[in-house]
Amino acid sequence: MLRIRYSIPLCLVLTGHFVSSLSIPSIPTSRQANAFSSATQTSPTRSFPLNMASAPTQDDGLMESAVDVMDSVNSSPSGSLASKTLPVLPTPKGMDQGVYTLNKVLIDTVYSMICFLYPVTGTERDFARFYVLETVARVPYFAYLSVLHLRETFGERYQGMSERMRTHYAEADNELHHLLIMESLGGNQNPLDRLVAQSAAFVYYWYVIAIFTFNESAAYHLSELIEDHAYNTYNKFLTEHADNLKSKPVPEIARKYYERDNPFLFDLFCTVKSKAGNDRARPLQLDTLHDVFVNIRDDEREHWRTLTNLVQYNDMNAVDASLVRSTKPVEAVSSLQ
User: Fold this and answer.
1) Which DSSP letter does residue 138 get?
2) Most exposed among 25, 53, 229, 233, judged by the fewest C-beta atoms under 10 Å?
3) How far apart are alpha carbons 210 and 196 in whole angstroms?
4) What average pLDDT does the segment 299-320 reach?
C-alpha cells in the first residue's frame, strides 16, 4: 500500500515534465493579434495610377485587400482575427497566348500607323488625329450590340444580358460625343482624314462582328487594348500641352454633354466602383478645353476598366476599381497564382 501511495505522485510528476518539454505552439492572445494588426497599418496605401503602364501587379492588389481586412479587424470592438475572414477574390482569366499576341500585334500596328500619319505637334492637326481615333474606337460597341441584338432575336437570353447591352449603348453614346467634340474643333475638315477614319471604321466593324460572334473575350480584349492606348494618348497630350489647352474655350457640345444633359447614360458606363468611395461620380467642371480633355481621358479609363473585367471575369464589375489590372496571357497569369 505504501508503494502505491508514492508511485502515483511520482508518475504524475514525470508525466508533467514530459508534457512541458514538448514544443507546442501557443495560441496568440488578443494583445498579440492587435499588435500584428497595428503593424500592418504601416503599409503604404495606393490609389489607381494615372498612367496605366505603371499599374501595380495583381499580387500588389491582393496584398492591399489583405491590409484592408486587417485594418477593419483592428478597428472592430473585439479586435479579434477569429471574427474576420479574408475576402475570396475571383481568379482572373488570362487570354490565350496566341489570341493575345494576335490582338496585341494588330492594335499596336494600327496605332503606330495612326501615330505616323498624325504625329502630335501641338497644333490644330492634333484634333484630326483624335477624330480618327474616336471614329475607330466607337465602332466595337456597335458591333457588340449588333451581335447581342441578333442573339436576343433568336431567343438567346441570359442573366445580365440586357444590362450589358445598355452599358454598351452608353459607351457608344459617350464615344459619339468624343467624336462630336473633335469635329467641333475642326478634326474632320480634311476629306482625306474623313476617308481614312471611315474606311478604317468600316473594316474594323465587320472584323469585330466576326470575332465577337465566336469569341466574346477576344473581341473585348481588342477594345481593352484600344482604350489603353487612348487613355495614355490623352494623358500624354494633357501633360505636354496643358498651357495651350488652358487658353482655349470649351466647345458648346462638350458643355452640353458634360454639364447639361441627363447623366443617366453617363452613369451607366461607369460600372466599376471603388470601396474607398473615390468613384468618379460626376465629370470635371468645364472652365477650359483642358478640362474637356481631362474628362475624355477619364472616360477612356472607365471603358478600360469595364472591358478588362469582361475579359477576365465575364462580369462588368467583378472586382474593385483598385484591383483592375491589364489582361495577361495565360502563361503570365498562371505564374502569378
Assistant:
1) T
2) 25
3) 22
4) 90
Please state, in angstroms and rounded to a whole number, the distance separating the CA atoms of residues 167 and 299.
13
Quick one: pLDDT band at residue 252, thresholds 50, 70, 90?
very high
Please state which of the four CATH numbers 3.40.50.1980, 1.20.1260.140, 3.90.380.10, 1.20.120.450 is assigned to the domain occupying 97-336.
1.20.1260.140
Residues with Cβ within 8 Å of 119's Cβ and at least 6 positions away in sequence, in order, are: 129
Which CA distances in Å does 244 have to 124, 238, 241? 11, 9, 5
What would the DSSP string read from start to end of 251-310? PHHHHIIIIIS-THHHHHH-----TTS----SPPPPSSHHHHHHHHHHHHHHHHHHHHHH
The residues, any chain, with a CB within 8 Å of residue 46's CB and separated by 6 or more, are 56, 60, 64, 322
Cell output for 256: 452640353
What's the predicted TM-score (pTM) here? 0.72
Structure confidence by residue, pLDDT tens digits, 257-295: 999 988 888 888 888 877 766 566 678 889 999 999 999
Q: Which of 155, 151, 180 is nearest to 165 (CA)?
A: 151
Contact partners, residue 117, CB within 8 Å, separation at least 6 = 196
Phi, psi of 16 (to 5 degrees): -65, -40
